[in-house]
Specification:
The structure is a single chain. The protein is α/β, with parallel strands linked by helices. The chain has helices at residues 46-49, 134-144, 161-166, 189-197, 236-247, 257-266, 306-315, 317-330, and strands spanning 29-34, 37-42, 55-59, 61-63, 67-72, 75-84, 90-95, 105-107, 114-121, 125-130, 174-177, 201-207, 230-234, 252-255, 276-280, 295-299, 340-344. The chain contains eight helices and 17 strands. The strands form three sheets. Strands 2-1-17-16-14-3-12-13-15 form a nine-stranded mixed β-sheet. It has a six-stranded antiparallel β-sheet with strand order 5-6-7-10-9-8, with helices on one face. The chain starts with 28 loop residues before the first strand and ends with a strand.
Length: 347
């Protein structure tokens, strides 16, 4: 069967896209969707919905200020860093990329740091090498970069100081993400402590969310879409905890689609999750056989998006279409700063 992006379309009024997070974070609404139907709750209810012996798996990537403004001579070039490559160069998405040539040197106003264009790619991608690395590069980004907030969050004057904290999860530990793993934004230390007190464990894995997450699906035929690669890491301790939990009958609760995609990249045909340190471009569509995850906490996604396709694959397209229609009609808030849903795998 040919999958079309239009098969995953729905009406989303613009005022349903959240412009700021709920405060406190756990006061966001939560739609529980399972085999028994759907229930309107709040994120604060999450610990009571999990069982003793379950395991929460969260993404501990930290968002970097990945949006840069560069100059090639007098020409202004917009750069969004995508991911660091094994040789310490950076893959980036570039506005006005047609003005670039391999070997061009880019400067950054107010900074001594420069970048050299190593290669250009069709569609606006480029590989850049900066003349600063490590702590010096981090200092450069803090001074010259800004958050690459999704285009759906209206910030005419750019991200605010409040966004710097709002758009970072409590799990953030390893620099490298362009976009936040937004399901994790709902967690607070108190919420996690309550889950722990109820006998629910937690581990972290790392998937550095890339700039490709903001790119729309341009073709209606889903098979024509190519996912951008993202760097993922599952350590031995996390893999062992996941495998022990499943062997003991506990459920794996992925916090966000990024954690789910990483675990599904690291799991074998035998259902065993193994350590993983590589790029993944896994595109999860209806028909995917899930081996690693039982429950998914995720935000509400946009029409025709790869992420809505993923949740349809996980919980069932009919079930998710009905759930999203209910969410829109009930006033749930969508996307990065919006509300959440807890999905049971539709086995």
């Amino acid at each position: 069967m040919t999958l079309l992006a239009s098969d995953f379309d729905f009406d989303l009024p613009p005022d349903r896209i959240a412009q700021a997070p709920a405060r406190p974070r756990e006061s966001a609404w939560l739609l529980e969707v399972g085999a028994q139907g759907r229930v309107d709750r709040s994120v604060a209810d999450l610990p009571s919905l999990l069982r003793e012996g379950d395991l929460i798996v969260a993404n501990d990537t930290r968002v970097i200020p990945a949006q840069l403004s560069a100059l090639r001579g007098d020409a202004r070039i917009g750069i969004t860093l995508d991911r660091i490559l094994p040789d310490a160069s950076w893959h980036a998405l570039v506005r006005n990329a047609r003005r670039l040539r391999d070997g061009d040197r880019l400067s950054f106003p107010g900074s001594d740091t420069t970048a050299t264009v190593l290669a250009r790619e069709p569609g606006g991608g480029a590989v850049l090498r900066f003349d600063a690395e490590g702590a010096a590069f981090d200092a450069f980004l803090r001074a010259a970069g800004r958050l690459a907030l999704p285009p759906y969050i209206a910030r005419p004057d750019g991200p605010t100081e409040q966004d710097r904290s709002d758009y970072q999860t409590m799990f953030a530990a390893h620099d490298g993400a362009v976009a936040a793993p937004t399901a994790g934004l709902h967690f607070t230390p108190g919420l996690l402590a309550q889950a722990t007190a109820n006998g629910v464990g937690h581990v972290t894995v790392t998937l550095h969310v890339g700039a490709g997450t903001f790119l729309p699906m341009r073709e209606d035929q889903v098979s024509a879409h190519r996912m951008h690669a993202e760097r993922g890491i599952v350590g031995q301790a996390a893999a062992d905890a996941i495998n022990r939990t499943r062997a003991a009958g506990g459920r794996i609760v992925a916090v966000g689609t990024t954690a789910l995609r990483l675990l599904e990249s690291a799991v074998g045909e035998d259902g065993i999750v193994r350590p993983f340190d590589a790029e993944t471009s896994l595109f999860i569509l209806p028909g995917h056989r899930f081996r690693a995850v039982d429950l998914l906490l995720t935000n509400f996604h946009l029409p025709r998006s790869t992420l809505f396709m993923l949740v349809c694959a996980f919980a069932g397209q009919g079930r998710m279409t009905d759930a999203y229609a209910h969410a829109v009609a009930s006033g749930y808030r969508f996307y990065s700063y919006g509300d959440a849903c807890l999905l049971e795998h539709g086995r």
